[in-house]
């Protein structure tokens, strides 16, 4: 008799949680967290690398598209800029949930949360009503992007070191 996949079992046992997550927009993060949570340490490490690399790629795309793409209308840019911390958190939360395998003290989650708070404060100060306000915000946007890029780069370095030991 073939052993059932632990992730399939988890999905079945957490159907109500997944339904709620689907309704409140956190389905992907919850699903990823469940998958990493039941995975062996080696598989969890691979998944952490995968999700952190995806966050790195998403951030790169975000920086290129939002700050440079003339096709975005101002209101679209505002929404995307505002949602960035939550978007990255949804991608990285599963990685933070398995910090035991690469970051036992939770330093990366702490740094990310501090970045998200600072970013959100900066965003709330932006005056989007005038064209100049938006330009000022995009100018201030570079430093927080460097910070979160550094956090993600450091996470990738630590995950790779752990994975290739």
Helix % is: over 70%
Approximate shape: globular
Number of strands: 0
| Count of alpha and pi helical runs | 7
Write the element-wise H/E pattern from the N-terminal end onward.
Answer: HHHHHHH
Total number of domains? 1
Distance between the termini: 34 Å
Task: Assess the beta-strand content as a share of residues.
Answer: under 5%
Sheet bearing the most strands, described?
none
Structural class: mainly alpha
The overall average pLDDT, rounded, is 85
Radius of gyration: 18 Å
Low-confidence stretches: none
Spell out the blueprint of helices and strands.
Elements: H1 6-13, H2 15-24, H3 27-38, H4 41-68, H5 74-97, H6 107-125, H7 131-163
Helix pairs in contact: 1-3, 2-3, 3-4, 3-5, 4-5, 4-7, 5-6, 6-7
Describe the structure.
The chain is an all-alpha fold and 165 residues long. The chain has one domain. Helix content is 81%, strand content 0%. The protein is built from seven helices and no strands. It has helices at residues 6-13, 15-24, 27-38, 41-68, 74-97, 107-125, 131-163. Helix 6 runs antiparallel to helix 7 (131-163). The longest helix has 33 residues, at 131-163. The chain is globular, with a radius of gyration of 18 Å. The mean pLDDT is 85.
């Amino acid at each position: 008799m073939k052993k059932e996949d632990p992730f399939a079992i988890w999905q079945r046992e957490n159907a109500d949680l997944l339904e709620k997550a689907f309704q409140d927009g956190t389905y992907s993060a919850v699903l990823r967290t469940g998958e990493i949570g039941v995975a062996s340490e080696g598989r969890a490490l691979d998944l952490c690398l995968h999700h952190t690399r995806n966050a790195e790629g998403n951030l790169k795309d975000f920086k290129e598209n939002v700050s440079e793409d003339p096709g975005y209308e101002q209101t679209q840019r505002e929404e995307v800029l505002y949602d960035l911390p939550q978007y990255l958190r949804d991608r990285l939360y599963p990685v933070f949930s398995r910090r035991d395998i690469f970051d036992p003290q939770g330093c990366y989650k702490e740094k990310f949360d501090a970045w998200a708070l600072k970013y959100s404060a900066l965003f709330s100060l932006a005056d989007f009503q005038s064209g100049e306000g938006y330009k000022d915000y995009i100018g201030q946007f570079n430093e927080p992007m460097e910070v979160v890029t550094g956090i993600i780069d450091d996470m990738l370095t630590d995950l790779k070191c752990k994975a290739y030991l």
